[in-house]
């Protein structure tokens, strides 16, 4: 076991969907710590000298990333460089939250840690560059790839899961969801807990952190509807149904040889019960 004092852990991006499950250490907001401001990053980290830096902050709006490549570069590349450089100076372990989008998305089956990244989108490219920066600059690091994250409850869940639930809550009797894109649904709470475990065990390197199992958006919507709104129906559609969806990778699923998480259905059921049905 590695002696990590979690009160000396700095989390950047703790105000976001995944960061909402961080209940330890330093958690500055983006005004206090703007990762695109190199001087501010260096001064903050030099002042607090964290033992570990968990870097969750990212430009995650994938549609905007394709329209505005400079926007996503500034946050995901330049911002990550600023954090990694400062982490190296104080000798901190750095945990970098990355994505299955670093892969091309055409593999027949889940991507493993040994598969070679081959990103095809602006977002995926910047996340891969971030991985390279961290692995080259920081002696002790964890690259924590994930996919199809849910979490944050009604306040923070503005992605697919939250949108489907809110549509059904508004009285919509039918929702549509893709059945030809595959991914690994991941509970943000399980993702953070796994990172904590890796740190406690003294692990370093690249890890795929996702709940067990592969699903389509249709599969997820079915679970949401069945659990919360049994009278609602879910219509399965392919990528030609939504404008721009044909560019989506067919496969965003990941699996790990080193991290075993519970099944995504169990995790999603807990998320619904504890954060939406209260």
Briefly characterize the structure.
38% of the residues lie in helices and 16% in strands. It is an alpha/beta fold and 278 residues long.
**DSSP strand count:** 12
User: Based on helices, strands and strand pairing, what is the structural class?
Assistant: alpha/beta
Low-confidence stretches: none
Please give the CATH architecture of the largest domain: 3-Layer(aba) Sandwich
Distance between the termini: 37 Å
CATH top level assignment of the largest domain: Alpha Beta
Rough outline: globular
Largest sheet: 5 strands, parallel
The count of domains is 2
Read across the widest sheet, the strand sequence of neighbours is 1-2-3-4-9
Number of helices: 9
Strand content: 15-25%
Q: Any idea what the CATH superfamily of the largest domain is called?
A: NAD(P)-binding Rossmann-like Domain
- Strand and helix order: EHEHHEHEEHHEEEHEEHEEH
Oligomer: single chain
Helix proportion: 25-40%
Pathway: Carbohydrate biosynthesis; dTDP-L-rhamnose biosynthesis
Family: Belongs to the dTDP-4-dehydrorhamnose reductase family.
Domain RmlD-like substrate binding: 8-274
Function: Catalyzes the reduction of dTDP-6-deoxy-L-lyxo-4-hexulose to yield dTDP-L-rhamnose.
Structure, explained:
The protein has 278 residues and is α/β, with parallel strands linked by helices. It folds into two domains: 6-149 and 185-208, NAD(P)-binding Rossmann-like Domain (Rossmann fold, 3-Layer(aba) Sandwich), CATH 3.40.50.720; 152-183 and 213-250 and 262-275, UDP-galactose 4-epimerase, domain 1. The protein has nine helices and twelve strands. It has a five-stranded parallel sheet with strand order 1-2-3-4-9, with helices on both faces. Helix 1 (38-48) links the parallel strand 1 (9-12) and strand 2 (52-55). The mean pLDDT is 96. One of its GO terms (biological process) is dTDP-rhamnose biosynthetic process. Its EC number is 1.1.1.133.
